């Protein structure tokens, strides 16, 4: 496998030290990140002031009575359980991205229902996957404590990041920016990627639905 030798530049924007963060989502206009914590608490973190604006304790799950419709198709390829998925477009072509306990992420062609590439390199379960809406990169997070950046066109590994926050559980982004948010065992972090250091085409080649 071919790897880029250059370093990916990024800067820390804000870090919140907390319990394990299992999910993240970024508000499109306000400096807020919605965090789902391992204890069952959902909180709104203002990453500009570094304050938690509000916390909600989810004490129990609502009763649900859902039918189990037959799936349209099944993508079979991972050796163990699938933890996360994401959907993205390259041009007019539709793809799915999946992360698994087999330590890999896979890119699937929705039309042919086949795996077009396997992203290998993590040394533990892949827990979060994301295709950046502004940059042609795939982002994967793992229980090995690392985040990996991949070229969304060639699937080459660009760089491996480690924020020393232990296991990575969730990835979020803010549309219209180069920011990424990661939820980890020891809290959450917002980083700002520097596109010039990624050695990628300036024109966006992939986009979110």
Automatic annotation (TrEMBL):
Domain of life of the native organism: Eukaryota
WD repeat copies, ranges: 75-118, 119-160
Protein name (Swiss-Prot/TrEMBL): Coatomer, beta' subunit
PANTHER family: COATOMER (PTHR19876), COATOMER SUBUNIT BETA'-3 (PTHR19876:SF75)
SUPFAM superfamilies reported for this sequence: WD40 repeat-like (SSF50978)
Gene Ontology CC, one term: COPI vesicle coat
Native source species: Quillaja saponaria (Soap bark tree)
UniProt-listed GO biological process terms: endoplasmic reticulum to Golgi vesicle-mediated transport; intra-Golgi vesicle-mediated transport; intracellular protein transport; retrograde vesicle-mediated transport, Golgi to endoplasmic reticulum
Keywords: Repeat, WD repeat
């Amino acid at each position: 496998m071919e790897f880029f030798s250059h370093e990916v530049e990024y800067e820390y924007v804000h870090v919140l030290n907390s319990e394990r963060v299992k999910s993240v989502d970024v508000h499109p206009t306000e400096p807020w990140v919605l965090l789902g914590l391992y204890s069952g608490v959902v909180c709104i973190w203002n990453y500009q002031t570094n304050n938690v604006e509000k916390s909600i304790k989810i004490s129990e799950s609502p009763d649900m009575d859902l039918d189990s419709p037959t799936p349209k198709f099944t993508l079979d390829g991972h050796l163990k359980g699938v933890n996360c998925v994401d959907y993205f477009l390259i041009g007019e072509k539709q793809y799915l991205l999946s992360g698994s306990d087999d330590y890999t992420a896979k890119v699937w062609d929705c039309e042919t229902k086949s795996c077009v590439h396997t992203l290998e390199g993590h040394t533990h379960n892949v827990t979060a996957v994301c295709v950046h809406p502004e940059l042609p990169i795939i982002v994967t997070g793992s229980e090995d404590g690392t985040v990996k950046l991949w070229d969304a066109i060639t699937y080459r590994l660009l760089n491996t990041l480690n924020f020393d926050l232990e296991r990575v559980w969730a990835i979020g982004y803010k549309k219209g920016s180069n920011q990424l948010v990661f939820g980890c065992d020891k809290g959450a972090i917002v980083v700002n990627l520097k596109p010039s250091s990624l050695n990628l085409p300036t024109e966006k080649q992939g986009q979110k639905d």
